[in-house]
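quick one before i forget lol
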Amino acid sequence: MTVPTPFLVEVDADFYTGISDPELAERFRNSPGLNFGTRHLGAGYTTWPQESSIPSSLLQDASEIFAFDMLIQNPDRRKDKPNLLRKGDELVIFDHEMAFSFLYALVSDEYPWDGRGMDFAINHIFYGGLKGKRLSWDRMQGALEAVNDERLGMYVNAIPDDWRNNSGNTAERIQKYLKQARTTARRFFRK
């Protein structure tokens, strides 16, 4: 599984004037300043097709992507919008703008390690292909448990000040959530 290399991209206020697609131009017009971008992956990647079965060679990666999305409460990797690319046996995930959806929920104390806050799971791109399969979550559990407080602090400190000032205490709430996820990892991955 691959995650494209992230970058902070400064978009000039007049950049949109050079874009011929009106919808795309409008998005850029509304987003001057600091933006999030990723390195171009190159040729050969295709979007994961709807209703595609999961090849056995990709079953472990698919299960870990599913678990990751459940953990970060990301309802945006679904059948009609996979946010997932494939090239042979490589899967690439992107677009996590709806992650940590508990931040926007009316009931914010529904956590996946308690078996709640995952109603969106049935719409996940891999739900049908993973349902009923025997899966191993050991690597994911170990990776979560290995994220120490220092590393979480590095994540929070990497957020640009402009974004932090515009989002209140969002970064700190996510940090607290991930600490709680780490301490309950065994319970989450046994659900």
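fyi Residues 170-183 form the longest helix (14 residues).
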